[in-house]
Each structure stands twice: as C-alpha cells, then as structure tokens.
C-alpha cells in the first residue's frame, strides 16, 4: 500500500477512449474506457466520484480506479456532474445531473464500446459523496440501475450534517440543515429512502476518518430492516482512499464486490 493513501488522487492514468456528453454544461460528460481483452460482454460500470460534492474534486482522480476496472474486462464510464461552488451545482443540479447521466450513459456508450457492452442498466461504483449519489440514483430511479457498489458512502445525510463532515459539505449541497430543508433531506438522503430494490454492496474501512464507519452501519441496518438487499463489508485495515486505489490491500474486495453484482444479473 502507498505510504500516503491520498497519492491515488494525483496518480496518472491512461487517457479514456472517448468522452461523451449527456447535457449541455461542460461538466455534464463522462469518460469511456473500453474493456481489456476479448471477454464476454459485461454491464457498463459507471464510476461516480467523490470529493464531498465540491467543485475542486472532479472525475480525474478516479482514473486509476476506472483503468483498473477496464483491465478486469468491464466497460467503464467515469461520470462528471455539476458540483457545489459551480453555477447549477448543489441542490438540485448535482442530483439531477447524476440521474440524467446514469439514465443516458448505456445508450451513449453503445457506439464506443459496442459488442463488449451488455445491454441493460449499468452497475454504479460510487465513492464517498459519489457513493451517496449512487445510492440516491438507485433509490430514486431503480429502473436505471442494475446494482450499486458503494465505497465508504455518505449514506446518511442527516447524520453527516450532524457530524459536520468536511466542514459543512452536506449543508453546501442541500442549502442548509434538515431543520431548514426537511423536504430536501427527505428527497436526497438515502437513509430516508429505504427500502430500495437494487442489489447493493457497501465496502467501508474501519480506519476511515473522512466518513466514519458508523454512517454505513446505520444505513445498512435501516436498509436491511426495511427489506433491501444490502450487504455491508467492513475492512479492518482500510482507510478512506484505499477503496479507490488498485494498489491498496482493499482492491481485491472491490473487485469481489463488483463480481458479486454482475453475476446477479
């Protein structure tokens, strides 16, 4: 494992094979990567990046993750979306972008990925705030999502607001706290949107200091109690960034989680 877990955020990755637009804004795009080898068609994997929904974090830091998934034989799309600190980002633009992108990408990817792409809804791999967005998409538009692999997701916005994660990140996304905007939390908080029918695997490291393990535990408990097909895997030696680093000790669990989802479909 790298000495600095954050090193993955700046690590170079091969350039994508194509970039497609699902809307008119410069950030309503996705980078596509063809799968390596000549294996069977697999579902599109849409990577939804984290960064606490803030403009300073974009899809670039998921390049190593996306390239590693393509090396495993998956067709991959790295989804971008408007973020807080940008015109149109936050409520409701950030959430609307993810819904639109997830729905459009299988069709947009077809001409590029061709016979390596299995028809149907994509699998979503979301990290941190991207894990929130993946869970939100599955809860809000389940017909557009085949499964979710949520990596250290911000799965409980009310609790994340209470904990003041990343210095007010949830308030920046939704315009304030749950007392000020209860309807926004009711619409956007995965913890309040259970049950969901989408098969979901959550991976979370017990050493995570950015998104505490308890956030995933509370979400998973509520989801399972409501009848949702959710599996939570706790990684004792993993922190926040190892989940998106193909060079980390957590990577085999990430690959296993994705295999679990695509064999279900």
Automatic annotation (TrEMBL):
InterPro entries in the cross-refs: AB_hydrolase_fold (IPR029058), BD-FAE-like_dom (IPR049492), GDXG_lipolytic_enzyme (IPR050300)
Start and end residues of each BD-FAE-like domain: 31-218
Xref: SUPFAM superfamilies: alpha/beta-Hydrolases
KW Cell membrane (keyword) present: no
Keywords assigned: Hydrolase
Disordered as annotated region, ranges: 1-36
GO molecular function: hydrolase activity
A Pfam family recorded for this sequence: BD-FAE
This protein's name: BD-FAE-like domain-containing protein
Species for this entry: Micromonospora haikouensis
Taxonomic lineage: Bacteria, Bacillati, Actinomycetota, Actinomycetes, Micromonosporales
């Amino acid at each position: 494992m790298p000495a600095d877990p954050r090193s993955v955020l700046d690590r170079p990755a091969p350039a994508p094979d194509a970039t497609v637009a699902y809307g008119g804004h410069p950030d309503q795009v996705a980078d596509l990567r063809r799968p390596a080898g000549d294996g069977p068609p697999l579902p599109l994997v849409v990577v939804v990046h984290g960064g606490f929904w803030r403009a300073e974090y974009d899809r670039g830091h998921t390049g190593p993750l996306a390239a590693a998934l393509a090396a495993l034989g998956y067709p991959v799309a790295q989804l971008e979306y408007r973020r807080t600190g940008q015109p149109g980002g936050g409520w409701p633009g950030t959430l609307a972008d993810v819904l639109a992108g997830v729905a459009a990408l299988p069709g947009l990817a077809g001409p590029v990925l061709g016979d390596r792409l299995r028809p149907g809804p994509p699998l979503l791999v979301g990290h941190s705030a991207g894990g929130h967005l993946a869970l939100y998409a599955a809860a809000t538009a389940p017909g557009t999502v085949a499964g979710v692999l949520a990596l250290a997701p911000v799965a409980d916005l009310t609790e994340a607001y209470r904990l003041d994660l990343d210095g007010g990140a949830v308030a920046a996304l939704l315009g304030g706290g749950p007392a000020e905007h209860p309807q926004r939390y009711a619409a956007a908080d995965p913890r309040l949107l259970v049950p969901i029918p989408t098969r979901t695997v959550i991976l979370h490291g017990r050493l995570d200091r950015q998104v505490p393990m308890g956030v995933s535990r509370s979400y998973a408990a509520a989801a399972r109690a409501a009848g949702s097909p959710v599996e939570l895997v706790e990684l004792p030696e993993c922190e926040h960034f190892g989940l998106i680093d193909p060079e980390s000790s957590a990577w085999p669990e990430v690959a296993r989680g994705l295999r679990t989802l695509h064999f279900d479909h």
